[in-house]
Design a protein that fits this description.
Layout lengths: L2 H9 L5 E4 L4 H10 L6 H12 L3 H5 E6 L1 H4 L2 E3 L2 E2 H7 L3 E5 L4 E4 L2 E7 L5 H11 L3 E8 L8 H20 L3 E8 L7 H21 L8 E2 L16 H15 L6 E4 L6 H14 L5 E6 L1 H13 L4 H18 L11
Parallel strand pairs: 1-2, 1-12, 2-5, 5-8, 8-9, 9-10, 10-11, 11-12
Antiparallel strand pairs: 3-4, 6-7
Helix pairs in contact: 8-9, 9-10, 10-11, 11-12, 11-13, 12-13
Bound molecules: 1,3-dihydroxyacetonephosphate (13P).
1,3-dihydroxyacetonephosphate (13P) binds next to helix 12.
Length: 335
């Protein structure tokens, strides 16, 4: 087993998943201001530190994706954030893309940037303790999108990113997110997501990526948020498995879904059904941002010193998702 493969497996072992706490300062500011907390470096750290020192970290959260600011922040004089995560047996990770920008010659689509200078930044992150990374490509579904141009160029960037990350002995999370926004049907989502993922693997293989040392972070298959033909969780699970079975090479050890705008319960329920129906050899777990943090953030905003109350809420969500990653969740457990 390669070192990268064992890192990927450790992150996703025994129903563990990933906490995506890598919101950029701009996104974190939006989240904090939506609950009337001012977005200072101290407050951003305080919320994250509260989650990272929760009891469920060591049993449920195999890895945490950090943002550049957070990975460099100190918890105390002699402890930084990656050291805190290591002490609770959770592997520190880092978002390394610099965001999605307008794609020249297809101005309504995006290309994710961040390849320039990436090798040097990766070396620095490794020294700071990171052992895995994230890069997110985004795609819209409309009649004409995602275009071949967007599919190809984002796949190419994901592959170049992955090659540099593996060169630095870290596990790349490959995240092609087909957005939920729009009126498209679940069938459109299935077709487009399959095309996007297949192209990603074509490029990853061309760039000689060790597929046993990556984690794929896709969206589930669902109808667009503006569609009037919503599908139920059973159908989400069925189509998601069909999509991944047909587009992901069998060497890939694990898949960790993004929550992408689902409610907390939806994200847990869908993951649970995917695992109940899973006919593949892939570990199917979670890499949730909003679906792990939303309720905890809301509670915390009312009293940012209520560490225990905030942690109880986070612990519950982490536990529910870890059960779902093993197909052992049920609605009754939510009470
Ligand atoms: P959500 O789970 O909130 O979609 O965030 C996951 C993520 O990392 C998106 O890049």
């Amino acid at each position: 087993m390669s070192e990268l493969n064992s890192i990927a497996l450790k992150i996703l072992s025994d129903g563990k998943g990933i906490l995506a706490a890598d919101e950029s300062t701009a996104t974190m500011t939006k989240r904090l201001e939506s609950v009337s907390v001012s977005s200072t470096p101290e407050n951003r750290l305080l919320f994250r530190k509260t989650l990272f020192s929760s009891k469920s970290m060591s049993s449920c959260i195999g890895g945490v994706i950090l943002y550049d600011e957070t990975i460099k922040q100190k918890i105390s004089n002699n402890k930084n954030v990656p050291e805190l995560l290591n002490s609770v047996n959770s592997i520190p990770g880092i978002k390394v893309d610099t965001g999605a920008k307008v794609l020249a010659n297809s101005l309504n689509e995006k290309i994710t940037e961040g390849l320039d200078g990436l090798r040097d930044r990766l070396k620095e992150y490794y020294k700071l303790g990171a052992r895995f990374t994230k890069w997110r490509g985004v795609y819209n579904i409309t009649k004409e999108y995602p275009s071949k141009l967007a599919i190809h160029s984002n796949a190419h960037s994901l592959a170049r990113y992955s090659a540099l990350v593996q060169e630095c002995n870290m596990v790349p999370i490959v995240e092609p997110e087909v957005l939920m926004d729009g009126k498209h049907s679940a069938q459109d989502c299935l077709l487009k997501t399959s095309e996007v993922i297949k192209k990603c693997f074509e490029e990853l293989i061309l760039h000689k990526i060790d597929l046993t040392g990556i984690i794929l972070k896709p969206n589930m298959i669902w109808a667009g948020s503006g569609s009037d033909k919503k599908i139920d969780s059973n159908e989400v699970a069925k189509l998601t498995i069909e999509c991944l079975k047909n587009s992901v090479p069998s060497e890939v050890p694990g898949i960790a879904f993004l929550s992408g705008g689902q409610s907390e319960i939806e994200a847990t329920q869908n993951l649970n059904l995917i695992n109940k129906e899973n006919t593949t050899n892939f570990i199917m777990s979670y890499s949730y941002g909003r679906a792990l943090q939303q309720s905890a953030l809301k509670h915390w905003s009312k009293n940012i010193n209520d560490v225990e109350g905030t942690q109880n809420i986070f612990n519950h969500r982490a536990k529910m998702n870890t059960l779902a990653a093993q197909g052992k969740w049920s609605k009754e457990l939510e009470n």
